[in-house]
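input
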Amino acid sequence: MAAFVTTAALVVLPGSPAHAGAIGSTPVATFDHQIGGVTMKVPTGCMFTHIVSGDGKNITHQNAGVDCGFVGALNSGFCNWRIDFTYVDTNNKTYRTSRGKTHTECKINPMRDNAPQTLPRYGRTCAYINVNNVRRAGQCHHITK
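output
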């Protein structure tokens, strides 16, 4: 039986058969980006979180998004953003990417759910947030036996 493992946290859900999940967060570093010639600043205080649940190589739920608090909650939001999910095998080779839609509106809490799926191999799944086609944060979980 496979389990999702992360260094951030491991959540084991009750029930039979056994299911496993993982949740992890990473800070989004402060950055500036241009929107229509205007410089927008995303300050400290935002976290990018990736959640995965399933059983073995079957992912039943996966989502990722940004939450901002304190000064970060006062920013103008993330503009021209998209969230991508990638799947990497145990040889560190990316074999699948689910590229998200680019959202032109500015949003303080961008989020994306990904469709359930069965993976062909073990390795890891990662989520990344991109702003103006620049990767700003990422978070991964290992999928192992």
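quick obs: The radius of gyration is 16 Å.
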